[in-house]
Amino acid sequence: MLERTIGELHEDALLKKEPLEAKPDVLGMVVEGLSEELAHSLEMETGKGVVVQAVEPGSIAERAGIARGDVLEELNDRHLRNVREYRDMINALRPSKPAEANPDGRRVILALVRRKEGTRYATLLVD
Q1: N or C: which end of the chain has fewer CB within 10 A?
Q2: What is the separation of C-alpha 110 from the centre of its chain, rounded to a whole number of angstroms?
Q3: pLDDT in tens for each of the 127 residues of the chain?
Q4: Is 7 left (phi over 0), alpha (psi -120 to 50) or beta?
C-alpha cells in the first residue's frame, strides 16, 4: 500500500538515476545545479548551492564524508550560487604561494554541507 502524501517530495527521487557522463573533479565529485524541486524538499532557496550527484570512492570528498545528495552551500566562506561558481572555486584550488597551503603542503577547504538531517561543515584536504 502506498503511504506517500500527494505532493511529498523525497530528495533521492529528485537525483538523477542514470550514471552521469561527467568526470569527477579534483575533489572526486560530480555536481549540478540545485533544482527547484530538490531545494523545496530540503526547505532551501534555489540558487543557494550545488547538489552532489556522484562521489568517487576513495576521493577527497568521500574521505571528508560528503555523499550523493548533499548540497554544498559554501566553500571557504564563499557562497555558491551555481555550478559555474563552484567550478571557478575548484579551478582556483592550487596554491600559488606556499603560504596558502598548510604545513604539509595540502590546501584546506571548508565546505558547508546541507542534508535533510541538518547542516555541517566538512574539511577537505587537497594535495
Answers
A1: N
A2: 11
A3: 434 333 444 455 555 554 456 889 999 999 999 888 878 877 777 778 999 999 999 999 999 999 999 999 999 999 999 999 999 988 886 555 554 556 677 788 999 999 888 899 999 988 7
A4: left
Q: Is the domain covering 23-126 a CATH 3.40.190.10 domain?
A: no
H or E stretch at 74: strand 71-75
The residue ranges of every structural domain in the chain are 23-126
Distance CA 66, CA 119 (A): 12
* Whole-prediction pTM: 0.77
Long-range residue pairs from 92-97, CB within 8 A, at least 24 positions apart, any chain: 93/26, 93/126
Retrieve residue 81's grid coordinates.
Answer: 550560487
Would you state the cell numbers that stand for residue 94, as one nine-digit string? Answer: 592550487
